[in-house]
Automatic annotation (TrEMBL):
Record-linked InterPro entries: TF_Kbox (IPR002487)
Organism of this sequence: Canna indica
Species classification: Eukaryota, Viridiplantae, Streptophyta, Embryophyta, Tracheophyta
Sample GO molecular function, one term: DNA-binding transcription factor activity
A Pfam family assignment: K-box
Domain K-box: 1-88
Name this polypeptide is given: MADS-box transcription factor 16 isoform X2
Any GO CC annotation of this UniProt entry: nucleus
């Protein structure tokens, strides 16, 4: 058990030393071959990080392309449904040319029945008005 603990401590010490060397610390005691090995390790790590990053970006790009294609297909289907419903619709909107707020909803069969809808934009907003309660009692 004690041997195993010492072995783990040695591994931990070596890893801490390697991390500090990769950060540019404790390079004074290294000879030229160790510096070259450290440089190669860092180049390999950098290459691996770039490959992972490129893979992640390309995967995300493909995913977003699929989502965009799906959204465009959904929009196309909705537009087709809208056109079909417009063609099959029994109602249409008629404008008599007076103003944009004066129009009529008419039946598409020639307008035999006319339902006029007039919008009056100058009505006050009644939501903010409160009514006083009067003290009414039966005598």
């Amino acid at each position: 058990m004690q041997n195993y603990l010492n072995h783990l401590k040695q591994i931990n010490t070596n890893l801490r030393k390697e991390i500090s060397q990769r950060l540019g610390e404790d390079l004074d005691g290294l000879d030229i071959d160790e510096l070259r090995g450290l440089e190669q390790n860092m180049d390999e790590a950098l290459k691996e990080v770039r490959e992972r990053k490129y893979h992640l970006i390309s995967t995300q790009t493909e995913t977003y392309k699929k989502k965009l294609k799906s959204a465009q297909e959904g929009q196309r289907k909705l537009l087709q449904d809208l056109v079909i419903k417009d063609e099959e619709s029994a109602y249409g909107f008629a404008d008599d040319g007076l103003s944009s707020s004066e129009g009529a909803l008419v039946l598409a069969n020639g307008g035999s029945q006319l339902y006029a809808i007039r919008v009056q934009p100058n009505q006050p907003n009644l939501q903010g008005i409160s009514y006083r309660s009067y003290d009414l009692r039966l005598a």
